[in-house]
Automatic annotation (TrEMBL):
Gene Ontology, cellular component aspect: plasma membrane
Subcellular localization, as worded in the UniProt entry: Cell membrane
Keywords: Cell membrane, Membrane, Symport, Transmembrane, Transmembrane helix, Transport
Stated name of the protein: Putative proline/betaine transporter
Organism from which the protein derives: Acidipropionibacterium acidipropionici (strain ATCC 4875 / DSM 20272 / JCM 6432 / NBRC 12425 / NCIMB 8070 / 4)
Membrane-related topology note: Multi-pass membrane protein
UniProt entry tagged with the keyword Transmembrane helix: yes
GO molecular function, one term: symporter activity
Record lineage: Bacteria, Bacillati, Actinomycetota, Actinomycetes, Propionibacteriales
Pfam families cross-referenced by the UniProt entry: MFS_1, Sugar_tr
Family statement drawn from the similarity comment of this UniProt entry: Belongs to the major facilitator superfamily. Metabolite:H+ Symporter (MHS) family (TC 2.A.1.6) family.
Signal peptide: none
Function: May be a proton symporter involved in the uptake of osmolytes such as proline and glycine betaine.
Length: 458
């Protein structure tokens, strides 16, 4: 009997090696397909944050610059209202019909809505209707974005070799930060070549137009994929459910709560660094626009380099230690880091951005595997979409507005540190309570309570 068991284990090991080799080969197509769609989505969000001061003057009454900037960030937050709705819509379809077709539809909606921002009339042309049209386009973007991050992350996780899920899924944030980097760099390039007057007049529109051809490329790449091995296995095993959202709330409610708690620090941290930071450097800390772009670009480069390293490390030491370490960094060092940034010295601001980015990279390197690993295949896309988008909507969408408001209300330029610190504390407590998922078996049915709620420590 022992010999039979050893033979079976050896056969499973051989099969696992063969499957991992096939997955590595498939990732050559999957990574670009997942990445370009994710790039398009976050390219838009990055542009919106990087060009926030220009957008505020273009679409709102610019007699009061701070009020116009607050209005710009309020419209930014409005787009997040639609994310949970979009998450339920796209996530349910992704769990019932597969990942690739849903993701192809999402990327074209995102690219079209981003392009539309670049052709909208201005406040000086049609008055308040310019603001209304911007809100409508942001709602469409939010609806589409509700299906992108969770779907692209699920796609990569379900194609990743079993021992490298952290490393592979970390590239979701690599593509996301590259998109923000591209937005900031393009803003810097246009500022240097056009000058601020031309940029503010019409040059700001150019980056938004770029999204449409990128989206068409994304659709093409995603439609050429096969669906993931895990989803096809669930189909063949008759485990695809007709009501994945109901099953999520029925049997995976603990995992949903864990996922929400994980995302709090990710949502606030991302939008603080990516959307709020460029205008913060210019408006509150009095760096010029070129310096603001340069600090942002260098900070994003640091994050892009570190995220895959932390993803690889999470496959070795587990997801929880890295996420907890990043949270502790934000709780303890956010305020002194913003003080360093506020010193007025360019390289001090770069160092401060890199420090904050390192905390974010530690969290991102582990969290993109930790979130989908909480759920089995047949409810993964929808479950992750619900929890992720609820947290992003409640915490992430309001981050630029709250951070700007804290400065206005307190008169303290470093007060946004309190917000990111509180968010990190919430996530840290959740992570302590959550199971370690690094070596969890992904193939399970939605009714398997053990898979959903207990730890598989290593």
């Amino acid at each position: 009997m022992n010999q039979d068991m050893a033979t079976a284990d050896a056969q499973r090991s051989v099969q696992e090696i063969e499957n991992d080799a096939q997955r590595r080969q498939a990732l050559k197509k999957v990574l670009p397909a997942a990445g370009i769609g994710h790039f398009v989505e976050w390219f838009d969000f990055g542009l919106y944050g990087t060009l926030a001061t220009v957008i505020s003057a273009t679409f709102f009454n610019s007699d009061n610059p701070q009020s116009a900037l607050l209005s710009t960030f309020a419209v930014f937050a409005v787009g997040f209202i639609m994310r949970p709705i979009g998450g339920m819509f796209w996530g349910s379809r992704g769990d019932r019909h597969g990942r690739k077709n849903v993701l192809a539809t999402v990327v074209i909606l995102t690219s079209v809505s981003t392009f539309l921002i670049g052709v909208l009339p201005t406040y000086s042309q049609i008055g308040v209707w310019a603001s209304v049209l911007l809100v409508l386009v942001r709602l469409l973007q939010g609806f589409a974005a509700g299906g992108e991050s969770s779907g692209a992350t699920s796609l990569l996780l379900e194609y990743a070799p079993s021992k490298h899920r952290g490393f592979v899924t970390s590239f979701i944030d690599v593509f996301g930060f590259l998109a923000f980097l591209a937005g900031a760099a393009l803003g810097l390039l246009l500022t240097l070549t056009m000058g601020e007057d031309t940029l503010n007049s019409w040059g700001w529109r150019i980056p938004f137009w770029v999204a449409l051809p990128l989206g068409l490329i994304g659709v093409y790449l995603r439609m050429k994929l096969e669906d993931t091995p895990e989803f096809r296995a669930a189909q063949e095993g008759g485990e695809v459910t007709d009501s994945p959202l109901r099953d999520s709330f029925k049997v995976a409610w603990k995992a949903l709560l864990f996922c929400v708690g994980f995302v709090v620090v990710k949502a606030v941290g991302h939008w603080l660094l990516q959307t709020f930071m460029p205008s913060y450097l210019k408006t509150d800390l009095k760096y010029n626009q070129t310096q603001s772009f340069e600090v942002t670009v260098i900070g994003f480069l640091v994050i892009v380099v570190l995220v895959p390293f932390f993803g690889w490390l999470s496959d070795t030491v587990g997801r929880k230690p890295l996420m907890i370490g990043g949270c502790i960094g934000f709780v303890v060092l956010s305020y002194p880091t913003l003080m360093l940034m506020g010193s007025g010295h360019f390289w001090a601001a770069v160092a401060a951005m890199a420090i904050l980015g390192a905390f974010m990279a530690a969290i991102d390197g582990a969290i993109n595997a930790a979130m989908p690993e909480l759920f089995p295949t047949n409810i993964r896309y929808g479950s992750m979409s619900i929890s992720y988008n609820v947290a992003v909507s409640v915490f992430g969408g309001v981050t630029p507005y709250v951070a700007t408001g804290l400065i206005a209300w307190t008169g303290n330029n470093y007060s946004p540190a309190f917000f990111i610190g509180a968010a990190a504390l919430i996530s840290m407590i959740t992570i302590f309570l959550a199971p370690e998922t690094a070596h969890r078996n992904l193939v399970a049915r939605a009714g398997d309570q053990t898979q959903l709620t207990t730890a598989h420590n290593h």
